[in-house]
Amino acid sequence: MALKKKFDVVVVGSGPGGLGAAIAAKKAGAEDVLIIERDKELGGILLQCIHNGFGTEMFKEDLPGPKYAQRFVGEALSLGIETLLDAMVLDITPLRHIYATSKWSGFIEIDARAVVLAMGARERTRSQIRTPGTRPAGVYTAGTAQRFVNIEGFMPGKRFVILGSGDIGMIMARRLTLEGAKIERVLEIMPFLTGVTRNYVQCLRDFDIPLQLRHTVNRILGNKRVEAIESVQVDEQMKPIPGTEEIIPADTLLLSVGLIPENELSKKAGVGLDPITGGPYVNEEMETTVPGIFSAGNVVHIYDLVDWVTEAGYIAGKGAAKFALSERKHGLDSVKLKVGVNIHHIIPHMLSKESLRDIPQKLQVRVIKPIEGKVWIEVTDGKNLLARKLERYVRPGEMVTIEIPQKAYDMVKNAETLTVNIVKFG
Prior knowledge:
Blueprint: E1 6-12, H1 16-27, E2 33-36, H2 65-78, E3 82-84, E4 87-92, E5 97-102, E6 106-117, E7 121-123, H3 126-129, E8 139-141, H4 142-152, E9 159-163, H5 167-178, E10 182-188, H6 197-204, E11 211-213, E12 215-222, E13 226-233, E14 246-249, E15 252-255, E16 259-261, H7 264-268, E17 293-295, H8 306-326, E18 334-339, E19 343-347, E20 350-352, E21 361-367, E22 371-380, E23 385-394, E24 400-404, H9 409-412, E25 417-424
Parallel strand pairs: 1-2, 1-6, 2-3, 6-17, 8-15, 9-10, 9-15, 10-11, 18-25
Antiparallel strand pairs: 4-5, 5-6, 7-16, 12-13, 13-14, 18-20, 19-21, 21-24, 22-23, 22-25
Helix pairs in contact: 1-2, 1-8, 4-5, 5-6
């Protein structure tokens, strides 16, 4: 079947954010919706996440990744959403002209009335964190090892050290243990857990896998293959403490040291990027700084739950359909959101003042440092308290949310910026 040359909405990526965006765009009235996916099937990273933990908020069920994905794949296909698989987007212009290539279709040019960028994220590598030592085989990112084990049926090693307490690393510690491997240690340079507490309990504590905070890899040892890892304790400035080195025999090192939003295409499209998150600046509809180009999921910032990625996709898809059908004006009368005390970043970065006329606006916030004990999350315009929410604790590995209520509209419409702070309770 010949591919159309023009679509109402084109979605790049078919993970939970992309699938959610395509479905929402179609339901919002966009007639021609296309998903472009570089893999051979829809679903994105979910296809290699065979563990449970997906859908707890969206469906109130505890599903494995492929089953969660299949629910949206089936819905997308039933709605008549078109797909272009095994295809790579090469470029996107600010006017939403897309250049792609496919094994089956060759070089393709497509015009879109609106675009949703949903490319997900990539893992930080050894070179990006500058781990010293030799360069033997046996050093992998946790996601690569996950694909090897869950998709390819290949065990990358027998004795592992995992650097980083991110969620993928902890999940792989459990997965590899179940396959008969020995996890010698999980090392975390920070003084606190960087993944969610649930994964620490279910993947490390339940399997007696030791976690050492304020520790990192000092050297990788080995010639052709990793033979051992030298760990070291670090001080408050993240510098190695002499005399704390320890040699840990291992044949494999897994890196779980963070994800980076995949935004090469965003740059080509002229989208403005937040240097803190690495993702696009977005408003409450997930529209970027380029009119008609939206962004959803881990390409914006790294989410804790897949359900929240899907929800972000819904918002972006609905906004994209609205833009495609009306070619509405862009960026009128917005208020910027400013990070305050103990705030790392806020999504969205800005709010349309008009949006508060209809529904409360939800802000997603990630903190810099953990506070164990009750705290207030507060939104102010510098003079007035617009919203306030009590939390039992805040941790960098777990996002918190707060809503700006509709009743705050009169104060918001007169503000230039809103500031979010974390304030100790009492």
